[in-house]
Amino acid sequence: MTIQIGDRLPEGTLSEFIETETAGCSLGPNTFQVADLVKGKKIVIFGLPGAFTPTCSAQHVPGYVQHFDELKAKGVDEIWCVSVNDAFVMGAWGRDQKATGIVRMMADGNATFTKALGLDADFSKYGMGTRSQRYSMLVEDGVVKQLNVEQGGFEVSSAEYMLKQLG
Fold this sequence. Notes:
The chain is α+β, with helices and mostly antiparallel strands.
């Protein structure tokens, strides 16, 4: 069952590579409860098949980095990129994309959260196993307000499309 507009995000955890040690967050991979992170916040979440892959690296992440200020001006508290990769890879990709401090690069290493969303996809024919479909969603206080799942290609999950939805 795929998550729908009006649904609450499922329980789950995501990992993030923390670049700077702070109180409560050690340097390196840290695991967070999704429910705790979304509480009281307006968050744009976008999912994609994999770090360092062509469309993801050339268009998807750069669009959200480029439009960060505009999204923040529309009341968005955080932007997350979720991918079925480990936190080390997501951290390295975030640095490569100059996304550090702009887009939270959230790792779903075993695809557990992605499967709970019903947005997993079988990329075995490409040697990549279970991955995420390409999507974007607007979440307010844990509830999905917008959901855009690509049907092949790259359009409705872009930062530009999300900006249009935010008005």
